[in-house]
Design brief:
With 341 residues, the protein is an alpha+beta fold. The chain is built from eleven helices and eight strands. 23% of the residues are buried.
Length: 341
Amino acid sequence: MLEELRKIEIFADQPQDQLAWLAQQGTEVRLELGESLFEAGAPADQFFVLFEGELEVRRYGSPMLYIRAGDVSGFLPFSRMTHFAASSYAVTRTRLASFNPNLFPEMFQRMPQVIARMVGLMSDRVREVTRMDVQREKLAALGKLSAGLAHELNNPAAAARRAASALGQTLAAARENNANLNRFPFSPQQREYIARFERNTGRRATASPVTFNSLEQSDREERLVTCLETHHVPDAWKLAPVFVEAGMESPELDALIEQIGPEPLPEVLGRVAALLTAAALAREIEHSTARISELVKAIKEYSYMDQAPEQEIDLHSGLESTLTMMTYKIRKAEVTVLRNY
């Protein structure tokens, strides 16, 4: 053990007799892969010098630091530690010398330089552990923030995905209606009337979507379903809600039938419904992607990503970005935000 202590940096310049004395005080310990040197909560009653191998120190189940050959660790001089705060495990075959901290007073007399160096090691260890604790706390806070942000991003992303999927099906239905309409020998006047009917209905739905209370909505849908079924339009219950939201009334359908006749009515209404649905889905995709862009913008502003370290900022915009980032936590905690700026 004497020659091995000589290879350790903090003991390298010590007199032979003092190293021989220290070697006599130590106990050699050998660990196999996975064996523990000390467990969290155990009394801090040893300091040790690692000759071979490597120890992994874990706290809360996660690696905290590594002790390698040539390192001195454990209970160091002037430490206030009474119990080990973490556990250590050998990550390979490991050999070390264990010493009782009661040796420190005599070591202070025999090897004062070593004691000073060990105090320096302890200071370095405290700084490193503190740095890692701060980093762990930051990561935990970031994890919570990321979870909330992921939730906020997931809602518009899922909505956009659903709308995009439905949009593909709707456009396929519109193409089928177009193909079926081509079989009818419409006059130029009839084609113009159909086109005008589609434009007016679409413009009205886009400009000011009609909203009713649930009872009125149900009554209007029921009347429209009755009208559609009277003219033998299939899937009337599917078409009625779309037309009611577009503000369509039964007289408009009667006027359309008067112009084109009852036979092509299902295909015309099917195409109109598909176009209205496609427009609504496109608006939903636009709204969802705008929300995602808003969140990404808030992230960049909140973290000052891609920005100079010193700059003039809009305080109100910064506050809004922070509120956007905290939306999930604010909503979860049922906090009411009052803006006075």
